[in-house]
Amino acid sequence: MKIAEVLFLLFAVLAHEGIGQPQYRYGLTPQTFDDYQRAIAADNSKELIDLESFIDDIVLDIRYATINNFTGERVYEEAKAYARRPVAEALRRVQEKLKSRGLGLKIYDAYRPYRATVRFYEIYGDTTYVASPYRGSRHNRGCAIDLTLINLASGEELRMPTGYDDFSRAAWPSTSIADPEVRRNRALLIEVMSEEGFRVNSSEWWHFDFRGWGRFEILDIEFPELN
To answer: What are the domain boundaries of the chain?
Structure first.
């Protein structure tokens, strides 16, 4: 066999195994689809659930499937929202509580492949607002949700302190708000999410982590593989 043929075969093997891929150069080795399938066969709580089909009247506005996000790039192939089974079940309970008020949830982002976290870090760099690729994101574990409240009848978002992905102190849930309506809306979102096991992120009013996230692995599975 010629040297060129040997090198070609070696490169093909390395590419298939994911060795040397840039998204893994920060010291983490996330689970890929085959790893994930073995994990959910042993523990079905680790399954990623399609929120749109699982929760009645849930609304998706998956910004990273568009260019309407802080990167200015289309990061996701599809506008999908997945979360681990216990997270999805908790969100469904939140939605049921909100319906009695004529309100519902709009999801901006949920499970996020690890490679997207790497891309965000390489674009922005400041880990106050994007996760470190050395540790990964709770989004990568299927245990973080970016969302807001909507009026179910009109579909309109309730007024909040900032828009989504606002990288300023105004987005911190601890920042004082003069407007009483906005203050009530933020407090309601944090309250209903907290009741079902979520904790708001200290720098983003829209970002909630599910308690117990540490038992779920970091994943690098793109949405078409989950369909």
So the answer is: 27-226
Q: What is the pLDDT of residues 14-69, one digit of tens each?
A: 444 444 444 588 999 999 999 999 999 999 999 999 999 999 999 999 999 999 99
> What is the Cα–Cα distance from 117 to 100, expressed in whole angstroms?
36
213, 46 in Cβ contact below 8 A?
Answer: no
Q: Which residue has the tokens 């920060």?
A: 26
**What would the CATH number be for the domain defined by 27-226?**
3.30.1380.10
Q: How far is it, in rounded angstroms, from Cα 29 to Cα 132?
A: 14
Cα(61)–Cα(56) distance, integer angstroms: 15
pTM: 0.88
How far apart are the C-alpha atoms of 223 and 227, rounded to whole Å?
7
CB contact at 8 A, 83 and 110? yes
Distance between CA 127 and CA 120 in Å, rounded? 10
Judge whether 112 and 75 are in contact, CB under 8 Å.
no
Sign of torsion over alpha carbons 12, 16, 17, 22: positive
